Structures are given as C-alpha cells and as structure tokens.
Amino acid sequence: MFAGTPPATGASSQRAGATSLERRRSVRQPLRLLRLVLLATRSRKHPLRYLLAADPASSAALLGQARLLAAPPAAAADAAAARPDPARRLPLEFGELPVVENAIIPSAALAPTALPPARPSCPFRLLAVDLDGTLIGSDLTIRPAVRAAVAALIERGIVVVLATGRMYVSSRPFAEALGITAPLICYQGALVREIEGEQRILRHVPVPLTLARQIAAFARANDLTMHVYHDDRAYTARFTEESAYYAELNRIPVAEVGDLVSFLKRRPTKIVFISGPEGVRRIYEELAARWGAVAQVTQSNPRFAEITARGVSKGSALRTLARKLGVRRCEIVAIGDHENDRSLLENAGVGVAMGNAVAELKAIADLVAPPVTEDGAAWAIRHLFGV
Fold first, then answer.
1. Residues 31, 368, 188, CA angle at the centre, nearest 5°?
2. Bridge partners, 233 (sequence order)
C-alpha cells in the first residue's frame, strides 16, 4: 500500500474491495475489446486475424459486443497492411482463438469446427502442401484421414499441389496415390513439372555450373556426403551411410560417380548435403556464410542442407504456377513444417504450420495445426475448406 492510505478493515474492507473490483472491471472490459480490435487491424494480410484472447471470465460479454463490430474500412485495412509489425504477429494455435470474418469470437464460445470454409470475397481455390512431415510422417505412409481430406478437396474442384524438396520421380507416386493431377513443385521449387500427359516441364532453374563445382570442391575438402541431380537422377562421389539413408527415405537409387568436381559438366537441378542433425546444422551455417548471397541455402530435414539457384524456393515456384492457373494469392492455402516451407506460407493467403513444425515456421504462420501424427493436414483442410 502507498504511504498515507489508511487500511480498510472488516466488512467495509470487503465492500470497498468489491466496489473497486467492479469499477476496474467496468473500465477494463471495453479496454480489452479495444485492444483486440487494435491488434487485429495490424494484420498485414487479414484485418481480424491476429487477436489476443480475453480472459475466460469476460469471454461471453466480449462475444456479444464483438459480433456488433464491422471490419475496418478497406482503406484503413490497406494502410495497416502496408505497415507490418512482425513482433505482434500472433499465430493461431489449434484449439485456441478461431478466425471468423468480421467478428472476434473467443475460444470458449466456439469449437474449432466453427471456422469458416473460406472468405466470401476471396474463396480458397488452391492448396499448396508439403509432403514429408506434413502429409506423411516418418513411416512414409498416407494416413486414411489425410487421404480422405485431399480426395474431398479434389472432388470439390480445389486444385491440390504438392510442394516438396523431393525429386520428381520420388514425389510423383505420392501424388498419384492421393489422386493429385496438378503439376508438382519439386526440388525446393527448382522444378515444376506436369504429372499427366506429356509431363511437360513448366519451370526449371538449375544451379550455375561454376558455383556447383565450387561447392563440390568444398565437400571433397571436408569429406562430406553431397548429392547432385541431373535429369531426375541422384549422384554422389562415394556412396556412404548417409547416402543409404537418403536413398531409403526417397526410395530412389543414388549412383556413385567418383569426384564430383570432374563429374559436373552441366548445371545440376539441386545440391544436397547429408549428415547427422548437429553436423548438418554446422554445414548449413557454413554454406550460408560462403554462398548465401549467390544461392538459396535451406534445410528441409534435420539431416539435409540444400542448395538451389538464387531466388529459387517453393514460394517462387508457387507464384509461377498460380499465375499459370489464374489463381490469386488470397485464394491459396499453404501447409508446411520446416524452414524450406517459409516462402510457401508467405506466398499464400493463409499459411498453416504443422504442430511438429520448427519454431521459426510457427512464428510466421496464420494457423498452427495438430502434428502429422494426429493428421494435422486433414484438420487444417477440414476447417479451412469446410470439407
């Protein structure tokens, strides 16, 4: 207590305390609501997406007031979008505050199934989804709930695109098993290729040859396992334990060709280093320090560090494909789990991180779904597309 304030005693103290508490609540109630609205309007993509939940005791009262709120004027929303504030972006965890257009509804008032299937002004038309760690787990199998959710989307006419770091030959069987007919985004976006018909290549951006040889010399000097890719085939200087792990995971052969510096006569589609989790992180950091300014360096797996040409990413490939299909950014939902999925989420209207995703991806996601072991991709599809 402050000096000079006499202490209240007995019943008078309780009455005074109750009166004071009611007064504070009457003041805080509208302030909480105002805080929600102000935070919501700071969203760079959707005015009422990033919200702070009110405490449970006031949820019902806030719900009644929030339903009366209209969305901010378009001009104000555009101005807010032009001034993003990453520090205040609040990803929506599954089971917490759901997103509902033009309303703020606390989690206590709505179950997750009340999420709207799409925004009336910009309905979702395309799902871009990662494969490993998102649609499939470590057992490399497509779970029934995921299969059913993807089938429901395709039946409705939604375009489903696999966006993966895998090779075309390695990812195509999964697409066919899911009934996906849209072009595949492969090799971290370096290759976009049709599945049906002539299987035309819509985009191919390989690594410059001089740069690839420099990286191969680095791998040789440090005795590191490195793979390069030509014409949808994988090659390595020496078939190691790491190569065996990669071959089993991707269900493809890896050819041993000796010195990669001498072997490289053409620009490779992609370069991959394989090591243990701690080792690959050091490799990633060294690659980024040496060539990050002239190439795209990323991690797609705790054991893989990958290099593609500068500007190549899943996100840039998604932009290319969306333009060909006539799909706007706001009509895209993207789901992923690792660092290489960041650009994918950033180029979608709604970005979803899996519950098993790395912290960096969850931090920029609009929605965090359950993990792959709990069919998180199916959960996100059901609640965003309403299938």
1. 135
2. 230
Assess contact for 39 and 52: CB atoms under 8 A: yes
Q: At what angle do helices 10-40 and 59-66 cross, to 10 degrees?
A: 40
Write down the pLDDT at residue 111.
30
Q: Measured between alpha carbons, how far is 237 from 244 in angstroms, rounded to an integer? A: 13
Chain position carrying tokens 């999925």 = 341
- Which pLDDT does position 278 carry in this prediction? 87
CA 176 → CA 161, 196, 202, 334, 369, distances in Å? 12, 10, 19, 20, 25
pLDDT number for residue 124: 96
Q: In 10 A of CB 38, how many CB atoms?
A: 12
φ/ψ region of 93 (left if φ > 0, alpha if ψ in -120 to 50, else beta) reads: beta
Residue 88's pLDDT band (cuts 50, 70, 90): very low
Structural contact between residues 362 and 371, judged by C-beta atoms closer than 8 angstroms: no
The CA–CA distances, whole Å, from 23 to 16, 17, 19, 65 equal 10, 10, 6, 19
Query: How far is it, in rounded angstroms, from Cα 208 to Cα 281?
Result: 24
Which tens digits make up the pLDDT trace of 279-305? Answer: 999 999 999 999 999 999 998 888 999
- What's the chain's average pLDDT? 77
Q: What six digits make up the tokens of 251?
A: 């269900």
Handedness of CA 128, 187, 222, 277 (dihedral sign): positive
* 70/103 Cα distance (integer angstroms): 7
Asked whether the beta carbons of 8 and 19 are under 8 A apart, the reply is no
* Number of helices followed by number of strands (H, E) in the chain: 13, 15
